[in-house]
Amino acid sequence: MQGLPTTYDAKDRIWSGAKRANTYTDETSIGSVICKGMRNWPRNVCQIIDVDGVEMTFGQVITWAIRIAQILKKKGLKHTDVIGIAAKNSTYVTPVAVASVACLLNGTPFHAVNPVSDEATLTHIFSITKPTVIFCDGQDHEKLRVAAKGWQPEIFTITDSVEGVPHIDTFLEPTTTEMFYQPEPLREGGEQTVAIFCSSGTTGLPKAVCISNRALFLDTNMLSSESVALAATSLDWYSSLWLIIWSTVVGCTRIITNKPFSPEYFVKLVEKYRINTVILPPHHMSTLTAFPGATKEALASIRSVAYGGGFTSMTTLKKMQELCPNAKLVSVYALTEVGVVSYNIGLGTVNTAGKPRSGIKIRIVDDDGKSLGYNEQGEIYVHTGLPWKGYYGNAVETRRMQDFEGWFYTGDLGYFDEQNFVYIVDRKKEILKYNGLHYWPTEIETVIAELSQVQDVCVVGVYDEREGDAAGALVVRSKGGTISAKEIADHVAKWLPAAQKQLRAGVQFADKLPANVNGKTMRKTARDVFVALRVSGK
C-alpha cells in the first residue's frame, strides 16, 4: 500500500492519486468491451446460481443478452429511455442487466431498484425515471404494477410466471442476425448515462444516481480468469455491477444467490465452490468472525476480501485475517455518486480508508469552506475528473452534492496523515451534540468494539431538550459473552473522558443490529430499537 502514489499540493491543499491512464477512449462503450470479452471465452462458466445449481457459460449469457438487446432496439428504446429492474439474483438477471450485455449493448440505461423495497419506495423511485419497460420477479409483479400505474410501462416477469403477464422467455427466441450483432455506439460519448442506482436512502427517500459510461472503466482489478467471486448482493448494489463487468472482462466465474446472508450459508458456499474473492459489508464480516464454523480450513480458498460501507473494528479485521491468512484484506471507500474514492490493502495502516485511486483528488474542508492540511479534520471533498449527470431529474439535489467546479460534497468527515492516508471519522450529518459539545458516534463505537466480548455495536443519540443527544450503545455480545452495561460504560469513560462522549443514555443488548438488505447498519432504526428496549426495561 505504501507504493500507491499520492501527491500533496501544499498551496491548494489537495491530495491527488496517480494520473489516470485511459485504456479506452470516451467513444468506447462499456457494452462493446463486455461483448468482446464474453465472445473471447464462450465455454468458460460465467455464473452459477447456488439456489438451483444452474451453470451458464459466457457464450450462453452473451447470446441471450444480444437477443434481448435486439428486441429492445426493435421496440424503439434508445439512450434517452430507461429500463427498470427490480429482481433478486437468478439465472436470468445477468443477461437482462448486462444489457449492460442487453441495456449496455443497446445503450439504454437501466435503473436497478431493490425488489424488497415497499410499494411507497418503489413508487417514489421509479416515478423519477419512469421506465418504459420493467423486469421483475413474479411475486413482486402486483407491487410494481401499482407503483408504476401513473405511466403504465410494459412489465415482464423474470421468475415465477404470472398468468396474463409476459415472461422474459419471450425475449430469448433465436434470431437470424445475432451472430453478427454489434453493440450500439454511444450517442453522448463517455458522459452518457448507462446505469442508474439509488442513493442509500438511510437519511431520507432515495435519489436516482446517474452513472456514466466512463465511470464504469475501473483502473484497479482484483480478479483474473481463475477467480471465483461471490456476488451476494442483487443488481441494485454497485458492487454487483462491478463484479458483472469485471467477470465479463477477465472471464472469471460469479457465484450468485438470492438467499439472505448468514455465516453458515457463507461458509457453505465458500467450501462448495472454492470461492476466492468476496465483498463483505462490515456487519456481515463481524457476524462471520463470531461464527464457530468459520475456520481457517473452511475459508482456505479465500484470497481477497474487500469491505466497506461502514465502520469495521480492528478486532474484527484481525479475526478475519487470522481466518484467511492467505487473503488480502482491502478496505474500500466509495460512494454511489463517485465510485471508488480510495482503498487500502492489508492491515499495516489500521483504520484508514487508504490513498486516493488514480484520477481522484481530495480536499479536506472546514465549515467556512477553507481547505485544511495534514491532521486537520473537516468534510471530505472529492473530484473525479469524470462527467456526472447528477441525480436524475433533480437539479437542486445535484447542485447540493457537486459544485460548479466538479467537487463532490461527500458528507463524510475525515483527515489526512503525513503519509497521505485518508481517515474517515464519521458522517457529517451524524454529528451529535450534548450540552453544546459535538461528538461522533463512530469514535465511541471504535472504543467499544475493542472489547473482546462485543461482536457488534451501534452508538445512537437519545434526544433530551435540556441537554441534547445523550449517547447510548446498542450492543451485540460475542457468543458466550457476559459483559455488562456498566463494564462497557466504564471502558468508554476510561478511553474517552470527554463529558459529551459518555454513555449517558446507557447500554442496551440485542441479538443483532438492524441492517438493510446489503448489510449496512441502519443507525436510525438502531436508535428506535435502543429506545424500545430502554422503555421496556429489558
Essential attributes:
single chain, 538 residues, alpha/beta, Rossmann fold, GMP Synthetase, Chain A, domain 3, 3 domains, six-stranded antiparallel beta sheet, six-stranded mixed beta sheet, 14 helices, 25% helix
Task: Give the CATH architecture of the largest domain.
Answer: 3-Layer(aba) Sandwich
Strand content: 15-25%
Number of helices: 14
Radius of gyration, taken over Cα atoms and rounded to an integer in Å? 23 Å
Biggest sheet, spatial arrangement of strands: 1-2-18-19-20-21
CATH class placement of the largest domain: Alpha Beta
Q: Describe the global form.
A: globular
Structural class: alpha/beta
| Number of strand elements | 26
Low-confidence stretches: none
What percent of residues adopt helix (DSSP H or I)?
A: 25-40%
Average pLDDT: 89
Overview of this structure, please?
The chain contains 14 helices and 26 strands. The chain is α/β, with parallel strands linked by helices and 538 residues long. It folds into three domains: 6-21 and 260-427, 3-Layer(aba) Sandwich (Rossmann fold); 30-216, ANL, N-terminal domain (Rossmann fold, 3-Layer(aba) Sandwich); 431-536, GMP Synthetase, Chain A, domain 3 (2-Layer Sandwich), CATH 3.30.300.30. The mean pLDDT is 89.
